[in-house]
Amino acid sequence: MKYSILILIIILISSCTYENKKITSEPFKINTPTTTLKDSIIEENLVKQLTEFMTAFIDGQADTAISYMYTGMFDYLKKEFPEEYSPELVKEMLCAPIKQLKKLNEEKDMTFEFEIGEITRRINYNDDKVFTIVVSIITRNGFDEVSMGDEIIAISNDNGINWKFMQLNKETSPQVLELEYPESIINKIIH
Predict the structure, then answer these.
(1) Element (H, E) at 21
(2) Distance of CA 168 to CAs 34, 37, 54, Å?
(3) For residues 127 and 12, is the Cβ–Cβ distance under 8 A?
(4) Residue 135: pLDDT above 60?
(5) 74 class by beta-carbon count within 10 Å (0-12 exposed, 13-18 middle, 19+ buried)
(6) CA atoms of 43 and 119, how far apart (whole Å)
(7) Residue 112, class by beta-carbon neighbours within 10 Å (0-12 exposed, 13-18 middle, 19+ buried)?
(8) Mean of the pLDDT values across residues 87-108?
(9) Which domains does the chain have, with CATH numbers?
(10) Which domain of life is it from (predicted)?
């Protein structure tokens, strides 16, 4: 009997240590804790804010999604494409993939959802925290399911209270990040 209870406790503890977060359109609260945060609170803030970002993205709320995007991306776009850059173009580019997915949903009876996975890198630089985190999109059509994942760079300039996000792209991310970070930090993020 003792061993059964012990095994049950071990299973319960191990099942609680890692949890995928599925994105829905439900409202979420954001904590605004003090500047010295425990790692668990930092991760909680990260997941909550990434959830809000992904929910806004799914719902086509471009303004909200843009408010969670890393501002260095916009600085980079303005610098590299001064003639073509506009906030309206950014909104259009942000909403286009979701419109495609929603169109597929209607035409082929497909559904999709996002899932937040594990944090793969944690870099501390002064008061900045730069993490990479796996995000997947899962599409379903009947019993068929396809999951595709990618990494997102999460950046907090205030020690984990507020987060901004950008897709990790080995070609362009270093150019965007070099506006704010030294090469040694960029290498830790990208590789």
Answers:
(1) strand 21-22
(2) 29, 25, 15
(3) no
(4) yes
(5) middle
(6) 9
(7) middle
(8) 80
(9) 49-190 (3.10.450.50)
(10) Bacteria
Tokens 């792209």 — which residue?
169
- Cβ atoms of 137 and 113 within 8 Å: the answer is yes
Structure token pair of residue 20:
């995928």
* Location of structure tokens 């909403």: 95
Compute the distance between CA of residue 188 and CA of residue 95 in angstroms, rounded to an integer. 31
Residue 167 has a pLDDT of 93
The model's pLDDT over 28-85, given as tens digits with 9 standing for 90+, comes to 333 333 345 688 899 999 999 999 998 888 887 888 989 999 999 999 989 998 998 8
Pairing between strand 21-22 and 144-156? unpaired
Neighbours of 72 (CB within 10 A): 20
Residue type, 64: T
**Strand 128-141 relative to strand 144-156: parallel, antiparallel, unpaired?**
antiparallel
